[in-house]
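FORM 7B: Structural annotation worksheet

SECTION A. Query
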Amino acid sequence: MILNFRRTLLLVLILLVVTCAFASTYNGRPKLVVIIVVDQMRGDMIERYHDQFTDGGFRLLMDRGAWFSSCYYNYANTRTGPGHATIGTGTYTLGHGILANEWYDPELKKFVTSVEDAKTTLLGADVTGAGSSPHNLLSDTFADEAKLASGGKARVFGVALKDRAAILPVGFTANAAFWIDHETGAWLTSTYYMQKAPDWLLKFNSEKRADKYLNLEWKDASGKVLRSTALTQNGKKQGFYEVVGATPYASDYTFEFVRELVENEKLGTGPNTDVLVVSLSNNDILQHKVGPDSEQEKAMMLAIDRQLNDFFAFIGRQVGLANVVIALTADHGAAPLPVYAAGLRLPAQAFDGKQYRAEINAKLSAKLGKTAEYVTAYDHPDAFLNDAAFSAVNLKEPAAEIAVGEMLKQMGALGYVTKAQLASGEVPNTVFREKFLNSYSPYGGWYVMGIARPFTIGYLNGTDHSLPYNYDSHVPLAFFGVMFRPGQYRRKVEPIDLAPTLSSLLGVNPPAAATGRVLNEAITDSRTQETPR
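SECTION B. Predicted structure
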């Protein structure tokens, strides 16, 4: 296996030398761009386990690609939806609009997800409920620009266990995005993309391939059982997403599906560059439970490394690594478990977010003289307001948001920023001012973004991400392909640089609202440079 891999790399290097045509989607070079997003993989995690990785997994990009080890999101709302939208659009929430994974819709008087779309229905399995689409995005994506440049001939797909992670990076013009039904594990898409699910997808689900990942034991290298995939856990029935999703079997299942997609949709064989985005959700599902410093997380990282090794080898056989560009990043980082951090004397704490919201509402009711649920939801550190409740006590949006923000400060927050302040640009002059300005969205009704203390988690068990601190904003960024100059680059960069870099590489426009820069220091331009006269 190692010998074959080294031969493949040698072939890539030889082709790099002899290839004289500059990369461009117009001539189908590269044939395929693959973007791998490992959900909730903090930037230091791949460095932590570097020496234990295989040659062909993470180290393919770290050792033989262009690895940017100091990559940080420059916004405050470090969550899955905003992160995946940022990766695709090359801009932050201010440009793409995705505020959170879900937010309050004042017209519908309920919470909606970032991709929920009542105008669509689900396809692929016998499930009910609204479908999903990218309709909330305020900018197009790198993949959309590849589609535009090729007159629609480029093939674009997104895959993840989560709908938002599959949909948001690929944008409006994708041929399809695929995600799973949380209960059964069946793969789904929606009528936004097509009116009938492809036959290969229906066949995949009809064979009940998800079932083979049930009732298994996940063991570490010593044989110790780390988790079980039995659907009944501690006497409680759970779904595929929660049970299998917290193990490496979920990424095995994801890559099994992706291989079917690549083969059946013939990715990398057309006249223009195709785009495939694969997000591995299981790292996030597990890490929320056990934290980034646990033995289970280490085992997960090593398992994903082996799975990437196998997947990259598959792509090499299908398309040829010399014809592929691979990018690796993450949607956000993660905080250490509060108990772990506190054990090292860091000022970490966890609290019950539901109880916290109840206390806010009780205090506001006492202050305003009328009992009501003024804060309809608290998703640490952000509060979504009930506009009707505040209107009943004659408070308009700016005053209502300030009232909630001041209550957050009374209850321990370091500060706050209101939606009205963000909309006007009048944000308090703190070290996080630019990060909060980049987090503004017109969605979400009235809201307040709290400035929480470092290492604070808004629920009692597990860990989280959602703060502007470096442990939540630090992610990997790396590229592999014959067009990239290998090396470790320590200059500070941002995830918004991924889309403009790939756009420049293919000779297409960057996404409409992209604000990132082209990482030109890592690109090898094979065209002959003319000497100025």
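SECTION C. Observations
The two ends are 52 Å apart (CA to CA). Residues 10-21, 528-533 have pLDDT under 50 and may be disordered.

SECTION D. Sign-off
Analyst initials: ____
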